Amino acid sequence: MKKDVTAPFNTIFNVASLTKPIVSMLTLKLVSSRKLKLDEPLYKYFVNSYL
User: Does pLDDT of 51 surpass 70?
Assistant: First the structure.
């Protein structure tokens, strides 16, 4: 690998399971700010493109 060369825009980085704690932390922050309820169905937050 060359130093000081930027990665192309379509580069896929292997982040493994690093997204799990980030999503968990963000979810709990939304719950603590009362913008999300843990027992609320998630379908309310997703757009169903099949309808």
Answer: no
